[in-house]
Amino acid sequence: MRLDSNTILITGGASGIGLALARRFARAGSTVVVCGRRQEQLEQAQRECPGLRAIQCDVSVEAERTALVERVTRELPGLNVLINNAGIQNRPPPLVQTQDWSRHRSEIAINLEAPMHLSMLLIPHLMQQASPAILNVTSGLAFVPIALMPTYCATKAALHSFTLSLRHQLKDTPIRVVEIVPPAVNTDLGGKGLHDTGAPLDDYADHAIAQIEKGELEFGYQFSEKGRLSSRQELDAAFAALNERFEKSR
Ligand SMILES: NC(=O)c1ccc[n+]([C@@H]2O[C@H](COP(=O)([O-])OP(=O)(O)OC[C@H]3O[C@@H](n4cnc5c(N)ncnc54)[C@H](OP(=O)(O)O)[C@@H]3O)[C@@H](O)[C@H]2O)c1
């Protein structure tokens, strides 16, 4: 995929991995619009990335998704790439305890419902564009879940599955469907400090943008590259080791 000639919508692109990709696409010459809930974060991203367009939008709300698509396709009729990146990560109490369902529900709405619906809303528009693509950001935890984050991991596994079906259904169209599978990356996902031991953001984003440019359809990095290519036996061993480590550190 060329980096210099796209018009790209990146959900959740005002921070973390989304912003790191936005900067790289913008630097190469693409037009980038990001969305997010926090206006001050959108403005901060625009200061850090000159030329970045920003729209306040909560992608967990169906009407806001519809309005977002209507607005970006009207204001940027050449929009040819959707990057479904917005996500949250909750660490709920163990499932034997009483749960606040609304937190699980919003995690499902943001991480899974939004990318599914935004893809469906934009397919007719993307079909009319040159070099169209949908890029979904899943996670290494789609392949090896951390049991203490059951809903987060389930949303990412489901988005991986949806991405496979989407790619298959669109195989005779010009729309490329790409899955970006990050490992732990040092961002503020889930709250400040929780991902400090993850891969440095710029190292990860440099790797990801190189894979996108090469035309890879699915790619991980370190832990997630190993995970996505593992046998069932290897996945079971990784699950046991990861969960033992997490339970000890809790
Ligand atoms: N960092 C990691 O270790 C890691 C690993 C694997 C996968 N990922 C995935 O990578 C993606 C980006 O995460 P990140 O690590 O870059 O964390 P991040 O910096 O927290 O980015 C998440 C972005 O999503 C936006 N967002 C959240 N809820 C939203 C909503 N309802 N509507 C619109 N935007 C929303 C946030 O902005 P607002 O809060 O302003 O809305 C934020 O800009 C996520 O899908 C995450 O699951 C991350």
- Number of separate helices: 8
Average pLDDT figure:
97
**Percent in strands:** 5-15%
Over all CA atoms, what is the radius of gyration?
17 Å
Q: What can be said about the biggest beta sheet?
A: 7 strands, parallel
Q: Which CATH top level class fits?
A: Alpha Beta
Distance from N terminus to C terminus (CA atoms, Å) equals 42 Å
Q: Can you tell me the residue ranges where pLDDT is under 50 for at least 5 consecutive residues?
A: none
Query: Which descriptor suits the 3D outline?
Result: globular
Hetero groups: NADP nicotinamide-adenine-dinucleotide phosphate
Order of helices and strands: EHEHEHEHEHEHEHH
CATH third-tier fold name: Rossmann fold
Descriptive account of the structure:
There is one protein chain. This protein has 250 residues and is of the alpha/beta class. It has one domain: 3-Layer(aba) Sandwich (Rossmann fold). It contains 8 helices and 7 strands. The chain has a 7-stranded parallel sheet, with helices on both faces. Helix 4 runs parallel beside helix 5. It is globular, with a radius of gyration of 17 Å. NADP nicotinamide-adenine-dinucleotide phosphate binds next to helix 1 and strand 2.
Describe the protein's topology.
Layout: E1 7-11, H1 16-28, E2 31-36, H2 39-48, E3 53-56, H3 62-75, E4 81-84, H4 101-126, E5 133-137, H5 150-169, E6 176-180, H6 201-214, E7 218-219, H7 223-228, H8 232-249
Parallel strand pairs: 1-2, 1-4, 2-3, 4-5, 5-6, 6-7
The structure holds NADP nicotinamide-adenine-dinucleotide phosphate.
The site of NADP nicotinamide-adenine-dinucleotide phosphate has 32 residues, from helix 1 and strand 2.
